[in-house]
Amino acid sequence: MSEQSIPSTTGTGRIDRNLGMELVRATEAAALSAAPHMGRGDKVGGDRAAVEAMRAALATVRMSGFVVIGEGEKDQAPMLYNGEALGTGDPPHLDLAVDPVEGTRLLANGRPNAISVIAAAPRGSMWEPGTSFYMDKLVVGAAAREAIDIRASPAENLGRVAEALERPVEHLTVFVLDKPRHEELVVRIREAGARVALHGEGDVMGALLAATPGTGIDLLMGIGGTPEGVVAAAATKALGGGMEGVRAPQKKHERERLEAELTPDELHRVIGLDELVAGDDAFFAATAITDGVALEGVRYDGERGVTTESLVIRARSGSVRRIQGTHRLDPEHLFGGMGIQEVVDVVTG
Q1: What is the C-alpha to C-alpha distance for residues 330 and 300, in angstroms, rounded to an integer?
Q2: How many Cα atoms occupy the beta-carbon half-sphere of 226 within 13 Å?
Q3: How many whole angstroms separate alpha carbon 254 and alpha carbon 294?
Q4: In angstroms, rounded to a whole number, what is the distance separating the alpha carbons of residues 272 and 68?
Q5: What's the predicted TM-score (pTM) here?
Q6: pLDDT beyond 50 at 294
Q7: Average pLDDT of the residues in 130-146
Q8: Phi first, then psi: what are they for 195, rounded to 5°?
Q9: Which of 147, 266, 281, 326 could be bridged to 164 by S-S, CB 3.0 to 4.6 A?
Q10: What pLDDT was estimated at residue 301?
Q11: Of the segments 14-23, 134-143, 335-344, which one has the largest average pLDDT value?
């Protein structure tokens, strides 16, 4: 049976085909287009190249996609903006969370863990953050997903996770963004006896590492972007991990707006994984741009062409695919004057 003859959804609304295998083509296109900007100090240029490539690739996917998490509002982000429609317009109807470059500074400075990511789920199943820009997050893998409570202290959560993993607290490693707002959190984690891995950016990657066994990261703790939290939730759910979040406005105007929009109980309410991404039909695709713990970045390998490494995860089946792609392209031609649609045609061909 050909791909075009496979129904997009069943009568229950479930998605029959693994859309992750199609979405990863868009993250590959974004990573390939961003990679030439690695280490050149221009985070805007790298992000722009990735946005254009991802948008063009997603336009070819047989879906009716609605961007819930994008590059910003329409007047601030001409491509991949919140509310944009993507795909061919055919079923299935999907919520999309996109980040063409998660870690723009990492890319610009040639540092590890810059990735291109897309998450997708049936329409209406992704939590829309609205004017909430920051969220306190706690992410763990499947073995500890019932142990966490973001309302508890770091020491209490570390003790619960250590018990679930049958390890001493001293053997736990916590991913924390290296920000001034986390100085007290880092002190409390260290006082509890756990180790801290500080990273300047990339809390989607941090959540991915925390939810994946064997990466050396056991938890993600701390405040990061709310949009990134929804993307991270899709990956965490697909991996069977656990996640909780609470709105954590960092700027006066954000707090004032949220206080005007929400009751105090709603503002401080714990948002669980099943609210961040409802149901079990979530998809997550990521392609590395720079090298990292989980994935190898884009490489130019002479006669082999350009190589990429990606992850495709589906919550419904629990499948995790690691995809190594070899793109027989001349980088001079690919990034030196070829139109973006020609790039996508080659990458997705």
Answers
A1: 9
A2: 20
A3: 34
A4: 18
A5: 0.86
A6: yes
A7: 95
A8: -95, 155
A9: 147
A10: 78
A11: 134-143
Tokens of 32: 């390939």
Bond into 92 cis (ω within 30): yes
Question: CB-side exposure of 93: number of CA atoms within 13 Å?
Answer: 4
Return the amino acid letter for 278.
A
> What's the per-residue H, E or C state across the chain?
CCHHHCCCECCCCCECCCCHHHHHHHHHHHHHHHHHHCCCCCHHHHHHHHHHHHHHHHCCCCCEEEEEECCCCCCCCCCCCCCCEECCCCCCEEEEEEEEEECHHHHHCCCCCCEEEEEEEECCCECCCCCCCEEEEEEECHHHCCCCCCCCCHHHHHHHHHHHHCCCHHHCEEEEECCHHHHHHHHHHHHHCCEEEEECCCHHHHHHHHHCCCCCCCEEEEEEEHHHHHHHHHHHHHCCCEEEEEECCCCHHHHHHHHHHCCHHHHCCCEEHHHHECCCCCEEEEEECCCCCCCCCCEECHHHCEEEEEEEEECCCCCEEEEEEEECCCHHHHHCCCCHHHHHHHHHC
Q: How confident is the model at residue 45 (pLDDT cuts 50, 70, 90)?
A: very high
Distance CA 97, CA 224 (A): 16
Contact 39, 110 (CB under 8 A): yes
Sign of the four-CA dihedral 338, 61, 208, 102 = positive
Phi then psi for residue 321, to 5 deg, are -115, 130
Do you know the residue count of the chain?
A: 349
C-alpha to C-alpha distance for 316 and 18, rounded to whole angstroms: 10
Please answer whether residues 43 and 114 qualify as being in contact, where contact means their C-beta atoms are separated by less than 8 angstroms: no
What is the rounded CA–CA span in Å between residue 211 and residue 237?
A: 9
d(Cα 68, Cα 85) in Å, to the nearest integer?
A: 10
